[in-house]
Write a structure and sequence with these properties.
Layout lengths: L2 H15 L2 H6 L4 E3 L12 H19 L4 E4 L5 E4 L2 E2 L2 E2 L13 E5 L17 E5 L4 E9 L2 E8 L5 E8 L3 H57 L9 H13 L3
Helix pairs in contact: 1-3, 4-5
Length: 249
């Protein structure tokens, strides 16, 4: 099978695994390959070769929300944070994230064992030189899996971590909550605008009513010869008297 066909096959498998129906039955997606995508143990395996492989595979792993990528080849052990494009997604790799998978390089039992000299990378959580060992991946439930790296001689746990993810019910609840908050904000804005408009109309109506009554009283007073009693400023009073007097000609 050619590389292009292999890549097409992998995308079809991952796309199917990431469907809503498949995730409902098998929420965790783990991919295993021989060569690592991220490591800091030796060159060129962890430098140019890893970068070349990442450019091809990583977009698929991110697009279809792969949780864990398992590799070997390097005769030592290393675990990364969730990482994509060389950048760490979160400080805590146990939290759920669609950013990128956790990478584990486990070539512990390979010979000769690797005694590395390179410094760890910024994405490295833990690593150790090659020694007889093996890994255990335990699916606890739909929202948690555990990985342990064990010493094959003593049984000691050399590394251990738990990955968590939100359940589908939690995700749906969060989506419904955000939608409800959005509608509440819209309704609040609409009510605020409506109340403001009604208040403005009411105030304008009262002002017009008062002005009409004042004009009417002024005209009645002028016609009946009664002394005027005008409230308001002198300018308003002159305006009212002038309007009423002009109606007598």
């Amino acid at each position: 099978m050619e590389a292009k066909q292999q890549l097409q096959w992998l995308e079809e498998v991952l796309k199917k695994a990431d469907s809503a129906e498949a995730r409902g039955n098998q929420p965790w997606v783990v991919v295993a390959g021989h060569r690592p995508l991220y490591c800091s143990l030796e060159r060129p395996t962890c430098s140019t070769e890893a970068a070349s492989l990442r450019s091809i595979l990583e977009p698929l792993l991110v697009r279809y929300r792969v949780d864990l990528y398992l590799a070997s080849h390097v005769h030592a052990y290393e675990r990364t944070f969730r990482t994509v494009n060389g950048s760490v997604c979160k400080a805590d790799e146990t939290e759920d994230s669609s950013c990128g998978p956790v990478n584990i390089v486990n070539g512990d039992s390979g010979e000769p064992s690797l005694q590395y000299e390179d410094m760890p990378a910024r994405f490295t959580v833990k690593r150790h030189p090659g020694q007889p060992g093996y890994g255990e991946l335990i699916v606890l439930n739909a929202t948690a899996i555990e990985y342990r790296q064990l010493d094959a001689t003593t049984g000691a746990v050399n590394d251990q971590f738990i990955m968590l993810k939100a359940s589908s019910d939690d995700a749906e609840l969060q989506e419904n909550f955000l939608e409800a908050v959005g509608w509440l904000a819209f309704a609040t804005a609409l009510v605020t605008f409506t109340c403001g408009f009604v208040k403005w109309v009411h105030a304008d109506g009262l002002k017009r009513r008062d002005e009409a009554l004042r004009h009417l009283r002024t005209e009645i007073a002028v016609l009946s010869g009664m002394p005027l009693k005008v409230t308001g400023s002198p300018v308003e009073a002159q305006h009212l008297v002038g309007d009423a007097s002009s109606g007598l000609h």
